[in-house]
Every structure is written in C-alpha cells, then in structure tokens.
Amino acid sequence: MMRALLLGALAMLASMPLRAQPLVADLSQHLVAITAGFTGADIVMFGATDGPGDVVVVVTGPPKPTIVRRKGRLAGIWVNRESMLFADAPTFYGVVSSKPIDEILSPQQLDRHQIGVDHVRLLPPNPEARRDDIPEFREALVRARQRDGLFTTEPGKVTFLGERLFRARMTLPARVNTGTYRVQVILVRDGQVVTVQTTPLLVSKIGFSADVFDFAHHDSAFYGLIAILIAAAAGWTAAAAFRRI
C-alpha cells in the first residue's frame, strides 16, 4: 500500500511543471509516533527535480545543551576532571545523499551549509575561552552520538528513478529524542547548491508512555512518591513469598 502511494506521488510530481521550481519534495509521513514498543522508524522522502543533479537530504533533531566530560586519574581512581558545554548540539543529525558528499560539494560549501557530521557547528557558549580544547571535546561528543546511532552519514541512500524522480530513506533509532525535526532536501549542480527545501517532522510520544512521561515531568514529586510506594510494595510482596517457602 505504501509503495503504491509513493509511486503515485512520484508520478504526480513528475507531471508538475518545474520551470519556476527546480526542486519539489515531501515526506511520506510528517509524524513519527513513539509508543511503548518503539524500536525505531524509517523516514521516506521523495521528490522531483527539473533536470540532472545530485540530491542531499539532511535531517536535524531539536538542539539542546549537552555537557561532555573528560575523565582523569585522582588517587588512582578514574573521575570526571574537566567538562565542556555545547549550547546547541543537535540531538540527531543524519545525512543521506546520491553520492558521497565530498564528491558533490567542496569543503567550503559543506561548511557553509553544515552538510556532514564533520561540518556541523558544535561550539561552547564562549568558544574563545578554551579554543585549544574544543576539537577534543567536539570529537568526544560526535563519537558518543555516533555510538548511539544519532549522528550518521550514508551516501547512496538517495536513488533516482530516471533523471528527475528521486527517493530517499533514513532510519531514526529507538533512542531518538522527541520534538520538531528539520528535514532539508538540497539540490546540487556543478558543485553548487541550487536550492534547499525545508520540511518539519514531528517526533512525539503517544499513548500510555506519553501519559507517564507527562505525569513524571509535570508532577515529579507525586510521581516519585508513587514509584517509591510501588518499589516498597514489590519488595514486601517478594519478602512475603520467600517466607512461605
């Protein structure tokens, strides 16, 4: 069913006049619902161009302050010695493209448009204060995000059906954060960005897990009390069961 809908949408895009618009693109869904059994989701993007070119899709999760810590030895014990705050680190950053991005754009263009994990601007609030330490802490942040599947670059995941129609797929992992994501579809020709189309994507908790999440955040004291009572009741029940054995 989904395949038939995508093919129909692609056919409709192909029939549209694109003289005034070099790129037309959309998502197969604009909401990713996180339920109790959520294990990840695939985002499918499709569209059409007005002629040959390369397509890059960048998905950026909502930014949030992130602290990176560096461990050191103190009296023979590994402890957190230093830390750095990155004020607006994206919670997710993924790139899919029709070819490797360094074959499509120059390093200057990649920096300008923040395409690729190595070109995302990750800076502390006052980068002048500890300029020498920034690359090391930045690398640690990127490694942690990549380990969790939250920072990815996947060339070849944008495929063309003919010269104009394209389709792209990106996977959101189970640990993805909620919020509004930005999906950028970029058309590139002769090493230059022709146009960028931006579409929002909402990742949201629904159902019982969303109710528990809201309750824990809005009534944290009451939630904590209930959690303690449940844990105490579970402990008492287990103790009573063992006394009967």
Order of helices and strands: HEEEEEEEHHHEEEEEHH
Number of helices: 6
Query: What percentage of the residues does DSSP assign to strands (E)?
Result: 35-45%
Give the end-to-end Cα distance, rounded to a whole number of Å.
Answer: 56 Å
Structural class: alpha+beta
**Name of the CATH first level of the largest domain:** Mainly Beta
Helix content: 25-40%
Integer count of domains = 2
Label the CATH architecture of the largest domain.
Sandwich
Query: Which blocks of ≥5 consecutive residues have pLDDT under 50?
Result: 210-219
Q: Major sheet: order of its strands?
A: 2-12-11-4-7-8
Q: What is the 3D shape? A: globular
What is CATH's topology name of the largest domain? Immunoglobulin-like
Q: How many strands in all?
A: 12
**Mean of residue pLDDT values:** 80
What value does the Rg take, in angstroms? 23 Å
Largest sheet geometry: 6 strands, mixed
Query: What is the fourth-level CATH superfamily of the largest domain?
Result: Macroglobulin (MG2) domain
Can you describe this structure in just a few lines?
The chain is an alpha+beta fold and 245 residues long. It has helices spanning 2-15, 101-104, 107-113, 134-147, 208-218, 220-244; strands spanning 23-27, 31-34, 41-49, 54-60, 63-74, 77-90, 93-97, 151-155, 158-161, 165-172, 179-189, 192-205. It has 6 helices and 12 strands.
